[in-house]
UniProtKB/TrEMBL annotation:
<dbReference type="InterPro" id="IPR002831">
    <property type="entry name" value="Tscrpt_reg_TrmB_N"/>
</dbReference>
<dbReference type="InterPro" id="IPR051797">
    <property type="entry name" value="TrmB-like"/>
</dbReference>
<dbReference type="InterPro" id="IPR036390">
    <property type="entry name" value="WH_DNA-bd_sf"/>
</dbReference>
<feature type="domain" description="Transcription regulator TrmB N-terminal">
    <location>
        <begin position="5"/>
        <end position="71"/>
    </location>
</feature>
<dbReference type="InterPro" id="IPR011991">
    <property type="entry name" value="ArsR-like_HTH"/>
</dbReference>
<protein>
    <submittedName>
        <fullName>TrmB family transcriptional regulator</fullName>
    </submittedName>
</protein>
<dbReference type="InterPro" id="IPR036388">
    <property type="entry name" value="WH-like_DNA-bd_sf"/>
</dbReference>
<dbReference type="Pfam" id="PF01978">
    <property type="entry name" value="TrmB"/>
</dbReference>
Amino acid sequence: MIEVLKSFGFTEYEAKALVALIAKGSLTAREIAEFSGIPRTSVYDVMESLKAKGFVEEFGKPAKFRAVSTEEIITTLSKRMSENLEVLKEEIAKLRSGEEVELVKLYRGKSVFEKLEELVISAKDEIVVLISYLKPEIKEILSKARCRLVVISSNASELAGECYEIKSPVVKDRTDFAHGLAIFDSEKIFAIFVNNVTIGIAGEGEGLVQFSKLMIEPLLRELRRERLKIEKQP
C-alpha cells in the first residue's frame, strides 16, 4: 500500500503516516511515530503536508490526527489523476502537432546591459532598434555592432548607421528613461525598460520575432519613404 501511495506522489513518510492512521484510527504525533517508524521530529511536518493535501484532519488537545474517509481519499486521488491525465493529453497533442512553446528570459539590473552587449556583438547581418531614448550606456553598446545597424530613436543622430530621429510628446525632454525593442538577424528579440529599475526580456521564438517586426517595420518603411522623398528634392 505504501508503494501504491508513493506512485500517487506521496513521500515515503507521508505514505507510512497515512497507512498508520487508516489502520489505527486517531493517533497522537508520538503514536504516529511509534506505529509508522517515522522519526518523531518529522511527524508534525508530515502531518501539515497531509492536511494541506486534504488527507488528514487534526482535532482535540493534545492534538490528535485521523485520516479522512476512504471515499474522500479515493475521490481526491481520482480527481488529481484525471487532472494530470488531461494535462498529459494536451501536452502530447502539442508535441505531435509540432506546436512550439516560446520561452523568454528576464534580466534585471547590470545583466540587462551585459545581455544586450552579447546580442549586439554576436549579430551577423542586421540589428534593428526602436527605442525612446539612447541612454549613454545603450549608445555605447550599439556602437559595437559589427553588422548593419538601423536605429529609430529621439536622439538617433548620435549614432552612426541608418538612423532615424523621431520626436514624440511622450519622450520630449525625457532622458531619465529608455523603453525599446531590438531585433537581431530576424532571429532574436530583446525588449529593454530603463527607468527606476532596469529590465530586459530576451526571446528567440518565431512568433516573438514576427510580432516585434509588426511593431517596427511599418514605421521603418514610412521613415525610409520620407527620407527618400527628401533626398530626391532638388
